[in-house]
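Key result, reporting period 2: structure in, sequence out.
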């Protein structure tokens, strides 16, 4: 074994081979998460790896060697070692998976010709072979290597792999057959011959993402469910970060083993009643999770100690990393590289910690002094301060958590990883996220959409208007505004809120109540004024409130119970808002001001409902104890067995926990059947498996709000999310158009870009843009230049009267308010007069760049745009031209490719959309033609990633048909699609 110093990143990274014909391809290096949640490094094999290769081979069993070479092969010859470590990185490539700097698996390909002999390009087939160390078989190493060697091969213009496998080597055959590539299989001379087409398919991508989900979920599960925890940096004296975490672990009742670790603890054998050791290595027993709370300069030593003794994951609370400047950023990169080299994942640095409330774990490895109540909300935050506030707010309002993570600088484990975990976690029904940055927006959107299809995902985004990422956060640069990002998140089903208060408000409702079936809201209560405020709030949020039912101030709790029961049974409403103010009797005594009596009556009404199909929320004013009493769970339907279950006997007896009590049945449970143990994800789950959908809680609390606006806003979010869930089952389709000439468009693009185009790209001239758009059935009205009055007249004669005269100077373009447009010019005289007026008022012709265009049927001026953003991908945008979109920001956005449903929603989601549908007696415009235009632009951008920007302005939509009057198209070499490549962690 090598020493810790020799296993530093610099020592482990191989130097490029001196005589190499091709440069060392460092972009092939990647960190990957394996099936069991551990990590490995994949990198090219070089001449410097001879000793590593020999050591690796010596640890492979004779059976595995036989499967690899089809004969007994006890050791590698010097010739073998030279051959397997010397590559040209084009026709002969070898990759290794490493942990701790040592090989655990290898894969190689050799380009071959049709006869199976060594060859060079243009031969496009290669023979591939794998070898995995026996101790690491079953971890998904070969599957990860296949993804990466296939990506390398495609980069080198290799289109097919050939592999020869012994029939008894069923594990290797399964690696190939399960990959999802198009393949052929034959049996020749006692071996199985496999041919794989390396072009990605929908199935290969689905397999890759399913494996990614299971691996990343498992890596999070290992962090949340450790069997043992070591606190590195627990000091002798009370206080301090390490000692605080140790106390919190013990105070929460952690069910595993706990150790205190500090280099200064040479004489002590115990600290706070747990074993104390000077190092992790001195513990002498397996440690699953280490909480690191030492100064930043001592963290590398602690990480090495953990890595060399098998620790699986780290929670690094230490500060002094990327949040502190350039030196800290480099320190953070080194930390991630060091931890990954040992196969460990990191929460942090600068983290607040993690919590798992499951009864069989009870982990509080954080600085939170109090263990949250058990519940069904998963909470992720990038800020310790916000995390503290959210924990306090949820606790105060009676909400329980399944797990909590405050990831600090999230240098490794991020919100994406926890989305992977919570997606099929049976203990979590609602996901709450406080994010200050999104490291991989494309992946986040994909994961959020998938998770939102089975359980609500609520996000509040901090640092929205700062223009830069918070200190310590490494994120890609995005050019699109925050409003666009929000719109795209909503398209993915994410419930997007603006404040942490709204985050808690929405989370409480979603965790405690069923989703509403529609926007109809019943309002009842003992205050007419509060009912009217609630009614107005519903209208503001786009809901459809019914006339408020005023129970009058004389109402008693029994009246509330009867009215709520009637509202729940009424088929004309989808949700109920109950308003309550204290009722003061004639003698001045408060009849139910303490709230507990009213809470019992409301819960009785909910429990008497045949099924929990409507959400109920309460708005209270100065009702002492009401919110606390309502926060106690009331059984509304049979719960699933397991976490959050309630016994049959307790349901039959109508048992209700007293106020403030916490039982195993006090949190809403999943609608699925009995879940496995908390956080467990079966490794053998099929690629297509999806979790049981949640949404109808088993143990319902009734959320209470101190203001009508807050309650209605949370309810409106639930209504919109419920509508999205129903529509997600039928997302629409991307239509095919027979008149699209995809090949012709590709040829035109290739001709324009050529081989020497600048990476910044090129803007097509008017003729080229029109020709490209025409290939996709988009006709642009011809525009003729008019540098002189005579040229304008000639252009009008060619186009036919009436015409429009427009300026195209950048400062006047699309600004009719500045007087740069003259319409309905029916004669030569009118045209010459208009030309003279323009040049007299606005400037010389060479400054104005006037053009002539034929008049089109009148309608509504709109704008259609699409652009590729490096962080989120291609975005399709639509708005009304002029002030609505430019001044008011009334623009709608969807990700490309857009479906027919997306196009219809895009048109209708504008605040100014009524102008398209006959507002104030005007004629409705041809929205089907508009939707088709949007879909054609989407297809163009999706089919040709070189089209990085399209702007159609204005698009005049008439009662019949539409006219595209101006078009701008920009081409550039496409950026690599990292979301379609092989699985890998972000590079450091």
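The corresponding designed sequence is given below.
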């Amino acid at each position: 074994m090598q020493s810790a110093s020799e296993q530093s990143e610099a020592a482990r990274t191989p130097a490029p081979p001196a005589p190499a014909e091709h440069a060392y391809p460092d972009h092939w290096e990647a960190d990957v998460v394996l099936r069991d949640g551990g990590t490995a490094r994949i990198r090219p094999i070089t001449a410097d790896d001879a000793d590593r290769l020999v050591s690796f081979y010596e640890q492979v069993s004779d059976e595995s060697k036989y499967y690899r070479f089809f004969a007994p092969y006890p050791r590698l010859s010097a010739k073998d070692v030279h051959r397997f470590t010397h590559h040209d990185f084009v026709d002969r490539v070898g990759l290794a998976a490493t942990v701790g700097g040592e090989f655990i698996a290898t894969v190689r390909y050799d380009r071959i010709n049709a006869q199976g002999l060594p060859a060079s390009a243009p031969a496009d087939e290669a023979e591939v072979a794998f070898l995995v160390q026996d101790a690491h078989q079953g971890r998904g190493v070969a599957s990860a290597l296949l993804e990466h060697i296939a990506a390398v091969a495609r980069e080198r213009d290799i289109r097919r792999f050939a592999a020869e496998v012994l029939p008894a080597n069923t594990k290797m055959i399964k690696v190939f057959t399960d990959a999802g590539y198009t393949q052929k299989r034959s049996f020749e001379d006692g071996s199985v011959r496999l041919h794989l087409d390396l072009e990605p398919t929908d199935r290969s991508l689905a397999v890759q993402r399913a494996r990614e989900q299971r691996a990343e979920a498992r890596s999070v599960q290992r962090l949340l469910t450790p069997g043992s925890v070591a606190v590195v940096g627990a000091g002798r004296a009370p206080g301090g970060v390490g000692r605080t975490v140790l106390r919190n672990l013990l105070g929460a009742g952690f069910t595993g083993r706990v150790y205190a670790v500090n280099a200064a603890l040479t004489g002590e054998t115990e600290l706070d009643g747990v074993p104390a050791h000077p190092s992790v290595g001195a513990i002498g027993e397996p440690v699953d999770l280490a909480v690191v709370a030492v100064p930043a300069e001592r963290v590398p030593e602690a990480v090495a100690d953990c890595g060399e003794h098998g620790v699986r994951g780290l929670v690094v609370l230490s500060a002094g990393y990327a949040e502190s400047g350039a030196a800290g950023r480099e320190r953070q990169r080194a930390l991630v590289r060091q931890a990954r080299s040992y196969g460990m994942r990191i929460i942090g640095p600068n983290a607040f910690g993690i919590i798992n409330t499951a009864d069989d774990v009870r982990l509080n490895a954080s600085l939170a002094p109090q263990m949250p109540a058990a519940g069904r909300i998963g909470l992720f935050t990038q800020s310790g301060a916000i995390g503290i506030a959210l924990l306090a707010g949820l606790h105060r309002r009676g909400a329980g958590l399944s797990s909590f993570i405050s990831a600090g600088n999230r240098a490794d484990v991020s919100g994406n990883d926890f989305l992977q975990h919570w997606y099929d976690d049976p203990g979590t029904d609602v996901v709450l996220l406080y994010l200050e940055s999104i490291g991989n927006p494309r992946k986040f959107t994909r994961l959020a959409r998938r998770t939102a299809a089975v359980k609500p995902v609520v996000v509040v985004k901090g640092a929205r208007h700062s223009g830069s990422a918070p200190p310590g956060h490494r994120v890609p640069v995005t050019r699109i505004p925050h409003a666009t990002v929000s719109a795209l998140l909503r398209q993915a089903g994410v419930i997007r809120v603006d404040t942490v208060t709204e985050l808690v408000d929405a989370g409480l409702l979603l965790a405690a109540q069923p989703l509403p079936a529609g926007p109809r809201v019943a309002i009842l209560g003992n205050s007419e004024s509060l009912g009217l405020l609630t009614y107005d709030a519903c209208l503001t949020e786009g809901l459809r409130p019914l006339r408020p039912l005023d129970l009058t101030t004389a109402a008693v709790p029994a009246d509330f119970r009867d009215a709520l029961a009637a509202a729940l049974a009424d088929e004309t409403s989808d949700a109920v808002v109950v308003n309550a103010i204290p009722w003061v009797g004639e003698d001045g005594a408060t009849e139910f001001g303490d709230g507990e009596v009213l809470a019992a009556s409301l819960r009785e009404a909910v429990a008497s409902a045949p099924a929990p199909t409507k959400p109920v929320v309460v708005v209270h004013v100065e009702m002492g104890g009401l919110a606390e009493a309502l926060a106690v769970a009331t059984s509304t339907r049979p719960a699933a067995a397991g976490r959050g279950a309630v016994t049959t006997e307790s349901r039959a007896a109508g048992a209700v926990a007293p106020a403030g009590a916490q039982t195993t049945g006090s949190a809403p449970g999943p609608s699925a059947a009995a879940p496995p143990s908390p956080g467990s994800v079966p490794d053998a789950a099929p690629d297509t498996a999806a979790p049981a959908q949640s949404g109808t809680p088993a143990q319902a609390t009734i959320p209470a709000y101190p203001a009508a606006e807050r309650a209605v806003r949370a309810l409106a979010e639930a209504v919109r999310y419920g509508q999205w869930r129903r529509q997600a089952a039928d997302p629409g389709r991307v239509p095919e158009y027979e008149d699209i000439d995809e090949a012709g468009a590709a040829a035109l693009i290739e001709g324009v870009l050529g081989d020497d185009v600048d990476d910044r790209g090129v803007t097509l001239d008017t003729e080229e843009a029109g020709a490209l758009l025409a290939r996709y059935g988009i006709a642009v009205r011809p525009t003729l230049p008019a540098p002189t009055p005579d040229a304008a007249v000639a252009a009008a004669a060619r186009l036919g009267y009436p015409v429009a005269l427009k300026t195209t100077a950048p400062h006047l373009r699309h600004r009719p308010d500045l007087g740069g447009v003259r319409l309905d010019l029916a004669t030569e005289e009118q045209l010459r007069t208009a030309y003279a007026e323009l040049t007299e008022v606005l400037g010389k012709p060479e400054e104005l760049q006037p053009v002539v265009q034929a008049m089109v049927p009148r309608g509504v001026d709109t704008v259609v745009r699409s652009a590729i953003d490096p962080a989120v991908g291609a975005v399709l945008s639509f708005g009304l031209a002029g002030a609505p979109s430019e001044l008011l920001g009334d623009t709608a956005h969807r990700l490309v490719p857009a479906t027919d449903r997306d196009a219809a929603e895009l048109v209708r989601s504008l605040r100014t959309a009524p102008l398209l549908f006959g507002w104030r007696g005007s004629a409705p415009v041809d929205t089907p033609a508009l939707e088709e235009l949007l879909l054609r632009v989407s297809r163009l951008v999706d089919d040709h990633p070189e089209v990085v920007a399209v702007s159609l302005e204005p698009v005049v939509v008439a009662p019949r048909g539409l006219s595209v009057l101006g078009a701008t198209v920009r081409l550039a070499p496409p950026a690599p699609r990292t979301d379609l490549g092989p699985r890998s962690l972000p590079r450091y």
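Confidence is low (pLDDT under 50) at residues 1-20, 634-699. The first helix runs from residue 9 to 12. This case is discussed further under Risks and Mitigation.
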